Amino acid sequence: MTLRHIAERANLSVSAVSMALQQHPRISADARARVQALARELGYVPNTAGRALRSQRSNALALIVPNTNQHVFGHAYFMHVLSGVTDVANERDYQLLVSTNPDEKHGKVAYERVMRAGTVDGVIVTSAPVADPNIARLVDSGLPVVLLGRYDHLPLAVSVGVDDIAAAVTMTEHLIVEHRRKSLVHISGPLEHQSAIDRRDGFLAACAAHGVRGEVVEGDYSEGSGAAAGHVIAVEFPDTDGVFAANDEMALSAMRRVALTGRSVSGDVSVVGFDDFGLSRVTTPSITTMHAPVEEMARLATRRLLDILRGTPIAEADTHAVLGADLVRRESCGCPPPL
Length: 339
Hints:
Layout: H1 3-10, H2 14-21, H3 29-42, H4 48-55, E1 60-68, H5 69-73, H6 76-91, E2 95-101, H7 109-117, E3 122-125, H8 133-140, E4 145-148, E5 158-162, H9 164-178, E6 183-188, H10 194-210, E7 213-218, H11 223-236, E8 242-245, H12 248-260, E9 270-272, H13 279-282, E10 289-291, H14 294-310, E11 320-323, E12 326-328
Parallel strand pairs: 1-2, 1-3, 3-4, 4-5, 5-11, 6-7, 6-8, 8-9
Antiparallel strand pairs: 10-12
Helix pairs in contact: 1-2, 1-3, 2-3, 6-14, 9-10, 11-12
């Protein structure tokens, strides 16, 4: 079924039918309604390939995640990113291509696949290490790019992120001020990623400001690394009375490890997390955490990318958008259960 078939039925030109389907104001409201009704009746589907050739656009975006499929689809963070990006892409009738790496040894593949193919109009990048040289190559390629996260070494690249430093300060001060904890440990994420660095730095800054002990044990955001960190804490820092994990999965493992040592979570040791992707609400006790607005961040990044594609200027103040995270009080730190 083509535009010509609809044009013959509607007694209009092909160009008039095309404009009617695009809601063009030059076509009367009655004609637009008649054409759209015929398109539905006849089962017309736009020829996106032909439209792309005419406009020099593919109407497709890429989400580059320089990790393996198992890593990407096994973590809730990426599902929230994907949800936010597809919300906006679907609204604007864009397709989405997700590009990952086949294994840990081939870190360039996710980028090269997109840059060589030339089949997308723009790119969103998430979860790339700070020192990943491929980000700068991608930005320098001229392909429109928006980064999820903070990349200070690329000051001209458009980015959308969360204020992880401020959020970590808030959470650490919650333990110190509201729960009187004096011996804290932070289970960090992998420290080649800026979000993990920022959460660690916010934790240490708050500890220093309040004169309490603050130790760091590095994890990798997995439950397994949280359990391993919990063992290190039990052996090396047995007097710890507060644990701030950089995500909720590691917080859950730390809670289990505390229980194995015979100490009580919330009573003897306050345990808190970060992200609030759902797990924190269903554990026993429920986990106090920072709510990271990841879907909102991904939606805003996609809108920014589409603005670039339309040629809409982005104000200098909006080049690096930073969203706040909210403290969600639950039981694992000693707060009363939520209503």
